[in-house]
Amino acid sequence: MAGGITDTGEPYSAFVGLVYMFNLIVGTGALTMPRAFAEAGWVVSLSLIAFLAFMSYMTTTFVIEAMAAANAQLRWKRREADDTSNINKQHLMSVENFFPVSTERSGHVDHFDIVERVEMGQMASMFFNKVGVNMFYICIIVYLYGDLAIYAAAVPISLMEVACLFTLLLGPFTFFNAQKTKYLQILTSVMRWIAFTMMIILALIRIGKGAGEGRPPVANLSGVPNLFGVCVYSFMCQHSLPSLVTPISDKKRVGTLVLADYVLILGFYVLLSFTAIFCFDSSLLHDMYTLNFTDNCNVLDIPVLRYFLGLFPVFTISTNFPIIAVTLRNNWKTLFHRDGGTYPWVVDRIVFPLITLVPPVIVAFCTHNLESLVGITGSYAGTGIQYIIPAFLVFYARRHLEPVMGRDAVNKHRSPFRHAFWVWFVVAWAASCLMFVTANIILTDTKK
To answer: Which residue from 159, 225, 130, 210 is spatially nearest to 433, judged by alpha carbons?
Structure first.
């Protein structure tokens, strides 16, 4: 996952939405993918990453369908409330006549238009019971903690020194709000494109000169669990889709937009990983791929460019950290929120920011293994957010809407994978992956 949540405050075109989505997905996970790609073998890695891209695309369409369903349900409830409050009405509008009457009054309004931004937490509250809502918030909080721990540990210099500096400089933002990130996103997006393009070109030049050192294995199943976690993390965007899709001015081709994005991102990840594993000896690939260019003058001997690539993760992480921290803090507040209640000033301004900031910083002090952090975060919390939650959201959204809107109501943003089989396939896949990853961790620890 990458560049935070889009919050420009203005509608934008489908093309801009495509660019935002690309930038949202391609980030820190991409920098850890080459090593995971090499460890699992290039044939296994290529097959797994293609399949996981397909699975992520499927659940992305689930979330978009659920967003449209949530917009339709909100419109229905408002209309129902208006009808109830109008004492001059002779009778309430029947469910069967809802669509023709509302169309006649408002001039062909499609109730499944995604106009109002409905975040995943709100959708969970609409479609899940209390237990499901709490499970959703626990899952996303764990994921965001993992995100912050990865960011705090990813600064490519002495961990102890940088963790202190990193926390002192960026930690205070957790106590405030992060808004209007448009220009921040533009800056980090430009830097991201320059850095990734440089790394791909430099690796291709070295391979072209016959100086490539990589001899990656074809297959190594022991590397699959970690690659799975890294890939899930690297395709993560589902939790930010409401903020990304809602501002698109023309949503007629949202499905095509999402498909094109996933094809582009898959191609980019494969290109980055293949150039990496054939350019560098697999055993020498760093957790943070940029370090392979900064500590080897044979690859890049221009000091300015070496410093740029070395500091690139610091810049991008520094801009993302406050956004993710504020998101996590707000989710903690929502989880414990009581209707009509407010938090004391100390709890609101001190306790919540501290419980947001302290755990990931402790993790950053305790571990240097960025690849494992990404793998564990993706394998557990990432699986919940990317697979399980979207599957259940779309399942219960369909169940909620049928008695309200009727069977004839057609959600124009419905997923191409509309059969219930696909929902249960995703759930079964996620459950089997969790069991496989857990079993592998237990067996690995037992051998040690």
So the answer is: 225
Distances (CA, A) of 55 to 21, 219, 403: 17, 22, 29
Q: How large is the C-alpha radius of gyration of the chain?
A: 23
CATH code at position 414: 1.20.1740
- C-alpha span between 402 and 106 (Å, rounded): 23
In a domain, 7, yes or no: no
How many structural domains does the chain have?
1
d(CA 383, CA 256): 24
Regions of the chain short of the pLDDT cut 50: 1-8, 92, 95-96, 98-99, 101-107, 156-163, 166, 173, 178-179
Residue 1 lies in a domain: no
Is residue 240 a contact partner of residue 20, using CB atoms and an 8 Å limit?
Answer: no
For residue 365, give the amino acid letter.
Answer: F
pLDDT digits 0-9 by tens, 2-56 = 444 444 457 878 777 777 778 778 877 788 899 989 989 999 999 999 999 999 9
Q: Domain range for residue 134? A: 14-86+94-447
- In this prediction, residue 145 carries a pLDDT of 82
- Nearest Cα neighbor of 114 from 233, 268, 258, 242 is 242
Task: Please choose, from the candidates 209, 226, 200, 207, the residue with its C-alpha nearest in 3D space to the C-alpha of residue 373.
Answer: 226
